[in-house]
Amino acid sequence: MGGASITTEPNSSNSTLPLPSQKNDGQSENVKEEEEEEEEDAEEEKGECGFCLFMKAGPCGERFTAWEQCVKESEKNKDYAAAKCVEVFKTLDECMKENQDYYDFFLRAEKAELEKEEDLMSESSEHKASSIGDSTDRQEG
Q1: What are 72-124's pLDDT values in tens digits?
Q2: Which parts of 46-85 fold into alpha helices (H)?
Q3: Alpha carbon distances (Å) from 85 to 47, 65, 90, 109
């Protein structure tokens, strides 16, 4: 019986392909990152952004969901969400401050943004004040 023989030695044409166990860590990390990004994209396609998922997973998830529903309802009714949902947001904000261990990154970013806005407003006020001083100097002269 003369059949084809099976050898266990690698074929020279296949020997250049790395086996999964031979991949370097950088490549496997890239693959993991790509898979995570694909999962995030799929979640976003379902209507859930990464921020929303983070908020809902935390200790204030129920309050975030209530705020989110208030905003959606306001948009649906063409109401001004900032005015209508202020109390719901206050309870969410209080909860987040009580759970700083989970929300620290978000709270620091929010604080930095508020400080940036305050700086811009004070610069604008200083510019207006100096402009008014210049115009009064011209009128006196």
Answers
A1: 999 998 888 888 899 999 999 999 999 999 999 888 988 899 898 888 888 87
A2: 50-57, 61-76, 81-84
A3: 21, 12, 9, 22
Alpha carbon separation from 111 to 61, 83, 118, 120, 134 (Å, rounded): 21, 21, 11, 14, 35
Give the tens place of pLDDT for each residue, 50-66: 989 999 999 999 999 99
Q: What distance in Å separates the CA atoms of residue 58 and residue 40, rounded to the nearest whole number?
A: 18
How far is Cα 141 from Cα 138, in angstroms, rounded to an integer?
5
For 53, residues 6+ apart whose C-beta sits below 8 A from its C-beta are 43
Burial class for 107, CB neighbours closer than 10 Å (0-12, 13-18, 19+): middle
According to the model, what pLDDT value does residue 92 have? Answer: 95
- Per DSSP, the chain holds a count of helices (H) and strands (E) of 6, 0
Q: Are 88 and 74 in contact (CB under 8 A)?
A: no
